[in-house]
C-alpha cells in the first residue's frame, strides 16, 4: 500500500522516473537540476543538486504524507555519510568493525594482498601458484557471468 502511494506520488505528480535496475531509486532531472530519492521501507534518503530543490521536495512530501524531517543524513543502511569542505564520501567502517568483532578478528593484522609472492618460490611451487591464480580468475569470470 505505502509503496503504491509513494510510487504514484513521485512518478505521476513529481515526474520522477523509477530505475528499472532498482525500483527503490527515483530520479528527477531537469537541465542541471537533479533530485534522487532512495526508498527503504518507509525511510527516504533525498539527494539534490541544490538546497532549494531539497526544500521544495520536502515541502511537497510533507503535504502528501505524514513525515518527520531528520535533517542531514549521517548514516543510512549501515553506510556512514561524511561531508567535509564541499566533498561527500561514504564508508562502511562501522559495519566492518561489527563483522570483525562478531568473528573475533578485531585484533588481526591487515595485509596489502593475501597472495603468495612468486619470487620466493621454486619453479614447481611457482607453477602451482600460477595454476591456482588461473583457476581463481576463471571462477571470477564465471561468477561475473552468473551475477
Task: Describe this entry's structure for a reader.
With 147 residues, this protein is of the alpha+beta class. The chain has three domains: 2-71, no CATH class; 73-110, no CATH class; 117-146, no CATH class. Helices cover 41% and strands 24% of the residues. It has helices spanning 2-13, 51-64, 93-102, 123-146; strands spanning 17-18, 25-30, 33-40, 43-48, 75-76, 79-84, 87-91. The strands form two sheets. The chain has a four-stranded antiparallel sheet with strand order 1-2-3-4. A three-stranded antiparallel sheet has the order 5-6-7. The longest helix has 24 residues, at 123-146. It starts with a helix and ends with a helix. The mean pLDDT is 81.
Q: Specify the number of helices.
A: 4
Residue-averaged pLDDT: 81
Sheet/helix structural class: alpha+beta
CA-CA gap between termini: 31 Å
Question: What is the makeup of the main sheet?
Answer: 4 strands, antiparallel
Helix content: 40-55%
Q: What's the β-strand tally?
A: 7
* Percent range for β-strand residues: 15-25%
Number of domains as seen in the coordinates:
3
Q: Give the strand order of the largest sheet, numbering strands 1, 2, ... along the chain.
A: 1-2-3-4
Alpha-carbon Rg, integer: 23 Å
Shape: elongated
Can you tell me the residue ranges where pLDDT is under 50 for at least 5 consecutive residues? Answer: none
| Helix-strand string | HEEEEHEEEHH
Amino acid at each position: 500500500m505505502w509503496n503504491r502511494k509513494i510510487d504514484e506520488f513521485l512518478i505521476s505528480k513529481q515526474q520522477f522516473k523509477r530505475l528499472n535496475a532498482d525500483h527503490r531509486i527515483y530520479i528527477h532531472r531537469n537541465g542541471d537540476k537533479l533530485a534522487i530519492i532512495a526508498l527503504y521501507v518507509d525511510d527516504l534518503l533525498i539527494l539534490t543538486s541544490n538546497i532549494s530543490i531539497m526544500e521544495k521536495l520536502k515541502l511537497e512530501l510533507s503535504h502528501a504524507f505524514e513525515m518527520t524531517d531528520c535533517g542531514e543524513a549521517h548514516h543510512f543502511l549501515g553506510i556512514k555519510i561524511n561531508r567535509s569542505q564541499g566533498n561527500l564520501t561514504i564508508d562502511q567502517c562501522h559495519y566492518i568493525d561489527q563483522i570483525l568483532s562478531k568473528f573475533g578478528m578485531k585484533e588481526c593484522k591487515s595485509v596489502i594482498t593475501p597472495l603468495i609472492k612468486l619470487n620466493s618460490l621454486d619453479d614447481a611451487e611457482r607453477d602451482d601458484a600460477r595454476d591456482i591464480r588461473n583457476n581463481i580468475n576463471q571462477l571470477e569470470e564465471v561468477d561475473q557471468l552468473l551475477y
